[in-house]
């Protein structure tokens, strides 16, 4: 699992690579939260399950990341880990571990406002799975 920041004029872009599709979606979630907070200070003390649907893999990636971003923006919970339990072309069932935001211990690194469809891509190459996603910051 690996990701890199993409040079983008106004927004934040990520290119994520992984050996399989499960790992790719897990890495995308971890990469997004790496931009928001130093995940090493999180404990992941609360576990919950999450299901997400999409029309195809790119739509599923956007829906997945939007649901996770809502956990931060809407519920003030910071995600430390995710584990994809089941996945097909249009559905994800996952376990996530998160902490409540504590301004005394959690420094917010970037304010991600939205996950966009601009430039989103999920593809399998002969070597690996690759995803590209742009965030509105």
What does the main sheet amount to?
Answer: 5 strands, antiparallel
Could you tell me the radius of gyration in angstroms?
A: 14 Å
User: How many distinct beta strands?
Assistant: 8
Name the poorly predicted regions: none
Q: What is the terminal separation in angstroms?
A: 24 Å
- The proportion of strand residues reads 35-45%
Number of helices: 2
Give me the secondary-structure category. Answer: alpha+beta
Average pLDDT for all residues = 96
Q: What shape does the CA trace take?
A: globular
The percent range for helix content is 10-25%
The ordered H/E elements are: EEHEHEEEEE
Explain this structure:
- This protein has about 140 residues and is an alpha+beta fold.
- The chain is built from two helices and eight strands.
- Strands 1, 2, 6, 7 and 8 form a five-stranded antiparallel sheet that branches. The chain has a three-stranded antiparallel sheet with strand order 3-5-4.
- Helix 1 (about 20-35) packs parallel to helix 2 (about 55-75).
- It starts with a strand and ends with a strand.
- The mean pLDDT is about 95.
